[in-house]
Amino acid sequence: MSSLNATPAGERVHIGLFGKRNAGKSSLINALTGQKLAVVADIPGTTTDPVLKAMELLPLGPVLMMDTAGIDDTGELGQLRVQKSLQVLNKTDIAILVIDSVADITEEDLKLLQRIQDKELSCVVVFTKADVAEKNAMQDNTVPETKHNAIPSSIPQISVSSTTGKHIKELKDLLAHLVPQKKAPFPICADLLQPEDQVLLVTPIDSAAPKGRLILPQQQTIRDIIDRDAVAIITKENNVGSALKNMKKPPVMVITDSQAFGKVNQAVPQEIKLTSFSILMARHKGNLEQAVLGVAALKQLQDGDRILISEGCTHHRQCGDIGTEKLPKWIRDFTGRQFNFSWTSGTEFPADLSPYRLIIHCGGCMLNEREMQYRYRCAADQNVPMTNYGLCIAYVHGILKRSLSVFPDLAEKV
After folding, report:
1. Which CATH class is domain 190-281?
2. How do residues 351-385 score in pLDDT, each as one tens digit?
3. pLDDT at position 114, please?
4. What is the Cα 160 distance to its own chain's centre?
5. For residue 210, what pLDDT is reported?
6. What are the E-state strand segments in 35-121?
7. Crossing angle for the helix pair 168-178 and 25-33, nearest 10 degrees?
8. For residue 27, what are the contacts with CB-CB under 8 A and spacing of at least 6?
């Protein structure tokens, strides 16, 4: 499948495999995917970093499979790998706790299960190496020992063999019924439109834009508009005025890349609603209200305060990069103060947010809903205001209320 036509990772069901070293996680993910995705060996600790695979897993549909290092890893590096594995829980929709059926259930297994339950994740316990357990029982002329009683009856359990394929299909069927029913609370913009409504999208094409295609939030927004049977009209920031003149009637809204907010605001008449891809993504992920309330912290910051700027994707930083250059400059110009900035990208997000007085996050198009809500919860729990790129840029350009005009209830709060 072409990567340009694939379901984005942030919109896939995230399935994480967790357990001790040598429990059979990598063999299981290979059996589930039908591919030799993960390296399999009898040596404990073969899997070091999380292994991710986007695929179609029938009957679920588009999923992201995540194999992790053993939670009983040892040594200094081992503890770092354990930390990485536990971080994967933050973006997991369905957790598979993998337990070696030949070995005993340990306190580590039960503690990990408790951690999964504390996060209120859909979960299934998979006992691996069923073929070995049955062979051992036959040689000893005994009934295979059941260890399932240690697991709460409310949690589905299944015994499988990755070698013979026993119960792998049944496990897939079980996973399909565990798909979380909770979806992102809102589409991107479809619920704000009526069929045949016209929407003007402003998509700057600069040196950081991917060659030959639009960035993901723009692609997703176009699809959302089309699904609503509305009309998407696309232009660059330099052509907004002429695009509006050529339209027979004004668009119901203009959606712009946040970094062009200042220029687009001047070109779009005040009676036309204006917002950004980043703001719409914050609502799509379920964090818009917290982000709106968090942006006001900019005025309370003092010289020397530390601001964390976090992005969900990783990319090569270039001259004029929005996160490392434009945002810090706009913030300094707006406040007249000097701050210390820190940056994270991809899956990195600090557990301890106490050094920061404000967190500014991207729209999170590459992160799933659970991961974004986890990050916002971390900020709320530690009393650190958190906002996002679009809201911050609108705020420093003095157009925050206008950028929220498509959400009247929230616009009244600023």
Report:
1. alpha beta
2. 899 999 999 999 888 888 888 988 998 999 999 99
3. 93
4. 30
5. 62
6. 51-57, 61-67, 94-100
7. 90
8. 38, 40, 128, 162, 163
Residue in 403, 414, 407 with CA at minimum distance from that of residue 264: 403
Q: Per-residue pLDDT averaged across 387-395, rounded?
A: 96
Among candidate residues 373, 401, 403, the one with its CA nearest the CA of residue 390: 403
- Taken as a whole, the chain contains a residue count of 414
**Cα 399 from Cα 262, distance rounded (Å):** 8
Return the residue matching tokens 């942030």. Answer: 10
Per-residue pLDDT reduced to its tens digit, 137-146: 666 655 445 5
Assess contact for 359 and 387: CB atoms under 8 A: yes
Whose tokens are 């504390």? That residue is 118
pLDDT at 41 over 50: no
Residues forming CATH 3.40.50.11410 domain(s) in the chain? 288-400
Tell which CATH classification among 3.90.420.10, 3.40.30.10, 3.40.50.11410, 3.40.50.300 matches the domain 288-400: 3.40.50.11410
Do 175 and 121 form a contact (C-beta atoms < 8 A)? no
Are 242 and 350 a contacting pair, CB within 8 Å?
Answer: no
> Which part of the chain has CATH 3.40.50.11420?
190-281
Digit-coded pLDDT (tens) for 68-98: 989 988 888 888 888 888 888 888 999 999 9
Residue with tokens 């040689």: 139
Alpha carbon distance 193, 223 (integer Å)? 13
Q: Which residue has the higher pLDDT, 355 or 101?
A: 355
Over its C-alpha atoms, the chain yields an Rg (Å, rounded) of 24
CB atoms within 10 A of CB 36: 9
CATH fold of 3-178: Rossmann fold (3.40.50)
Single-letter residue type at 109 = D
Query: Cα(373)–Cα(376) distance, rounded to whole angstroms?
Result: 5
Among the ranges given (41-50, 199-208, 332-341, 403-412), the one the predictor scored with the smallest mean pLDDT: 41-50
pLDDT (0 to 100) of residue 5: 53
